Amino acid sequence: MAKRTLVASPKGIEKARYALIRKNWTQQALADDVQVASWATISKFFNRVPISYHIFIEICTMLDLDWQDITTADNQKQPPTTLAEIWQQLQSLGSPTEKMGLVLVKEETLGWSRQASSIYEKSVPLGSRIRFEINMESAGYLLLIQKDTSGKVWCFCPSCFAPQTQLNQGRTVLPQADSPMKSFQIEGVPGKEIVFAIITAEIPNLDWLPQPNDEPLELTENHLSQLCNFISNNMDCNVIYTEYEVR
Questions:
Q1: Do 62 and 172 belong together in one domain?
Q2: Are residues 156 and 232 in the same domain?
Q3: Does residue 95 sit in the same domain as residue 117?
Q4: Beta 129-136 vs 100-108: how paired, if at all?
Q5: Which of 3, 116, 192, 219 could cross-link to 153 by cystine, CB 3.0-4.6 Å?
Q6: Residues 19, 105 share a domain
Q7: Domain boundary residue, one of 29, 55, 75
Q8: CB-based burial of residue 185 (10 Å sphere; 0-12 exposed, 13-18 middle, 19+ buried)?
Q9: Phi, psi dihedral angles at 224 (to 5 degrees)
Q10: pTM of the full predicted structure?
């Protein structure tokens, strides 16, 4: 799961130091007596080093401070506006994984079959037929988006290729069994593609989510901004991604 962090602003640190004096605490006491966090984490907080979102808020709560008044303006203002900038923000909220990726398939008399491999493909030629696999560590709702080599971003789950979004623990494959296709063909131009999986306990509260019979939706800056906000405000999201080269 991606680890979100916050960092205090210079003025925020002034307020925090004053709060310590007001409570007759030291930084060491905040760690040892109040036990809000380890000494190393407390030291990072007061030295303006990013720390866990949860711990940052807890420290502010113990000091009777509003964490939104303490955090640096960089965390709150001047949000990214271009698709590339918002994508970078999204990537900062996720963690790379080896538990999902591309699987090459080949055409046989009875249909498309998986090409046996112990690892997922990291480089595939144009024209290849592939499926995408993800190993779910727990049951949940899957939102799968892809950034292709041209820089466009698409929602593939939910879509007609992945109409089932509530999935059990274990391996799931796209296209899903009831999809109109049995595999995807790698098209476009050479470059890097990235696939993100957002796994949640409840259906994501996003009004733009495609319907099960819809074609994959091309996501705009507004879509991605909503997605980043959703992830930032839902700490139980499991956000992972993988990337591969198209040659």
A1: no
A2: yes
A3: yes
A4: antiparallel
A5: 219
A6: no
A7: 75
A8: exposed
A9: -65, -35
A10: 0.66
- Walk along the chain (247 residues) and give the pLDDT tens digit of each residue: 445 678 888 889 999 999 998 888 888 888 887 777 888 888 888 888 888 888 888 899 889 998 888 886 555 445 567 888 888 888 888 889 999 999 998 764 445 455 544 589 999 999 999 999 999 988 999 999 999 999 999 999 999 999 999 999 999 999 998 888 889 999 989 999 999 999 998 888 899 999 989 999 999 999 998 998 888 777 778 899 999 999 9
DSSP the chain: ----EE-B-HHHHHHHHHHHHHHT--HHHHHHTS-SS-HHHHHHHHTT--EEHHHHHHHHHHTT--HHHHB-GGGTSS---SHHHHHHHHHHT-EE-SSEEEEEEEEETTEEEEPP-SS-BSEE-TT-EEEEEEEESS-EEEEEEEE-TTS-EEEEESBTTB---EE-SEEEEES-TTSS-SSEE--S-SEEEEEEEEEESS----TTPPPTTSPPEEP-HHHHHHHHHHHHT-TT-EEEEEEEEE-
| DSSP, residue by residue, 130-159 | EEEEEEESS-EEEEEEEE-TTS-EEEEESB
The range of the structural domain enclosing residue 192 comes to 83-246
Listed residues 75, 103, 123: the one ending a domain: 75
- 154 with 44, same domain: the answer is no
Angle between helices 10-23 and 39-46 (to 10 degrees): 130
**Three state DSSP letters for 78-104:** CCCCCHHHHHHHHHHCCEECCCEEEEE
Q: In terms of domains, do 104 and 153 share one?
A: yes
